[in-house]
Design brief:
The chain has 214 residues and is α/β, with parallel strands linked by helices. The chain is built from six helices and ten strands; from the N terminus they run βαβαβαβαβαββαβββ. It has two domains: 102 residues, Formyl transferase, N-terminal domain (Rossmann fold, 3-Layer(aba) Sandwich); 107 residues, Rossmann fold. It has an eight-stranded mixed sheet with strand order 3-2-1-4-5-6-7-10. It has a two-stranded antiparallel sheet with strand order 8-9. The structure holds 5-O-phosphono-beta-D-ribofuranosylamine (GRF).
Length: 214
């Protein structure tokens, strides 16, 4: 069974989708620990409700970025984490973590990368006037939302969309594709070849317009 470590900074609705995926048997995994940089994160409540160990680790309590991320890596290793899941973790992850979990960190981004990386992907897309937006699950490398893309889901974007209305449409898809990507990983169906992630078994799986119902 796959052991997950989740990093989240806020509401944690993606964290919840993963918990629900495990509870329903869709995902053959366990969550060993939730780590947050924000003592006020609602994700902490979700962890408590589901008896998941939670750690609050704030960068300001460490001397520098490297020691912060090395410490996080140590906490994850200690608990036998196989895959690190960034679920609304609002920081660019440092080398100390990436080096310890090379190709074993996933992130979800609320836009169709490589468009609109960084903060407020939903607002960037709505303001730009695109007709299609969506979300992307990708492996994490040193860049900002630049790692190899695992899976994307598309949603329509309308001329009168706001960050919130488009964001809500995108979030629904996030909750479907993130557990799905983790499931593909747990089944050993993902491999990385340069920039490309190969999904074993089904070419059509990489673009989910109508993701499988969980
Ligand atoms: C999501 O939109 C995710 O794509 C982005 O941050 C948001 C987190 O939402 N990285 P939640 O905390 O999972 O509800």
């Amino acid at each position: 069974m796959l052991t997950l470590g989740v990093l989240a900074s806020g509401s944690g609705s993606n964290f919840q989708a993963i918990i629900d995926g495990i509870d329903s048997g869709y995902l053959n995994a366990r969550i060993a620990v939730l780590i947050t940089d924000n003592p006020g994160a609602f994700a902490l409540e979700r962890a408590k409700d589901h008896n998941i160990e939670a750690l609050v680790l704030r960068p300001r309590d460490f001397t520098d970025k490297d020691s912060y991320y090395s410490h996080i890596a140590g906490e994850l290793k200690k608990r036998g984490v196989d895959l690190v899941v960034l679920a609304g973790f609002m920081r660019v992850v440092g080398k100390g973590l990436i080096d310890q979990f090379r190709d074993k960190i996933m992130n979800i981004h609320p836009a169709l990368l490589p468009s609109f990386p960084g903060l407020h992907g939903q607002k960037q897309a709505a303001d730009y006037g695109v007709k299609i937006s969506g979300c992307t699950v990708h492996f994490v490398d040193e860049g900002m939302d630049t790692g190899p893309i695992i899976i994307q889901a598309a949603v329509p974007a309308y001329h009168d969309d706001t960050e919130d209305s488009l964001g809500a449409r995108i979030l629904k898809q996030e909750h479907r594709i993130y557990p799905y990507a983790i499931r593909l990983y747990s089944e050993g169906r993902l491999s990385i070849n340069g920039r490309k992630v190969i999904i074993k078994g089904d070419r059509e799986d990489s673009v989910i317009i109508n993701p499988p119902v969980i």
